[in-house]
Design brief:
Number of helices: 2
Radius of gyration: 18 Å
Shape: elongated
Structural class: alpha+beta
Strand content: 25-35%
Distance between the termini: 39 Å
Number of strands: 4
Number of domains: 1
Order of helices and strands: EHEEEH
Oligomer: single chain
CATH architecture: 2-Layer Sandwich
CATH topology: Double Stranded RNA Binding Domain
Helix content: 40-55%
Strand order of the largest sheet: 1-2-3-4
Largest sheet: 4 strands, mixed
């Protein structure tokens, strides 16, 4: 799983921040990571230098082989919170896809057995 991290000009994309984000993403996906080929994470500060509530935006895009990308866009007061919210949304969507795929595989096996 490749993880790409980018920030706008209002958020310092330090090496420390990027390492932290990659660790959080890797840990968060855990066993699901075998199904994910790439994750793109982009942070922006929608108010620039001004302070504001929920002005940090995280766009997280996960790519699974054979599926359309899964995208979550979340706003929060900090980049860390926005990332956590986006990860939860994407993990839920991935679980749904995996579950449906398993159900489809079982149905196909049942049909094959019935044909024999």
């Amino acid at each position: 799983m490749t993880i790409q991290v980018s920030t706008d000009h209002n958020i310092a994309g330090s090496e420390r921040l990027i390492t932290y984000i990659k660790e959080v993403v890797t840990t968060s996906f855990g066993r699901r990571s075998e199904h994910i080929t790439r994750v793109d994470v982009h942070f922006s500060d929608e108010n620039g230098n001004k302070t504001g509530i929920n002005d940090k935006k995280c766009v997280l895009e996960a790519h699974m082989e054979g599926h359309q990308p899964i995208v979550a866009i979340c706003h929060s007061g900090t980049t860390e919170q926005a990332l956590e919210l986006a990860l939860e949304k994407v993990k839920h969507a991935i679980e749904t896809i995996i579950s449906k795929s398993r159900q489809h595989d079982r149905s196909a096996k049942d049909e094959l057995i019935d044909m024999q």
